[in-house]
Amino acid sequence: MTRLRRHATPRWLLAFLVTLVSATLPACILDVEYAHPGQSLVPHEGKALVFTRVRFFNDGREYFPWGAPALGDILLEQDSDRVRHLWLRRLDETAVSWELWPDKDGLLMIWLPPGDYALVGTEDDPGEYPAPTLEVVALLRVAADRPVLFAGELIFTHEFREGWHRHYMFGSASARTESVAEVTAVVEARYGALPGPPTVSTWCVGRELPSGNYNPGFVSQSRRLLDAGCPASP
Hints:
By secondary structure, the chain is an alpha+beta fold. It is built from four helices and twelve strands, in the order H-E-E-E-E-H-E-E-E-E-E-E-E-H-E-H.
């Protein structure tokens, strides 16, 4: 069964993203291929199977922006208006994906060619005018010698209610890798056996990420962070 994705993203937004992330190469769509429950996870030539889990917390309470809000949340007006939108941009090709569509619990299983990627996000409605505020929220390197890659759990946390100062688009960002066995078990229960043991190449997060202004040094700055193993920043 074909899995639903947010292909309703307006084409003007894709063009807007490509313009913002700069570079002089021709723009194209990054074809993100999703794994599907019930289909064998056979290796894809020239691509790595990348799995991760993207999680959001507000004052210690986890919420899920990709699924319909629970009735209790709607009645209590808790997190029901919290939308989060994410896209992948490949650094060396100026290729931008359609909006990513993880499972309801944030699990994302995709096939990607080796390369360096920026995860771009917004909490604005991408279908409204003026254009949404976009920021790079994480970076990822997919190495050619890693056919199955666990990118860790990408966690965004708001420690205070709206109106308090924050340093990141979705709150404080962190990447957790010690849960590889736990997430792998969820993956294999839902999608079937992995085609090989996973290696870890975690998301790069922190204050050193390129600014949301997409300065001319965006690509080189991102690569320097990835080359350095993304040293932790407070």
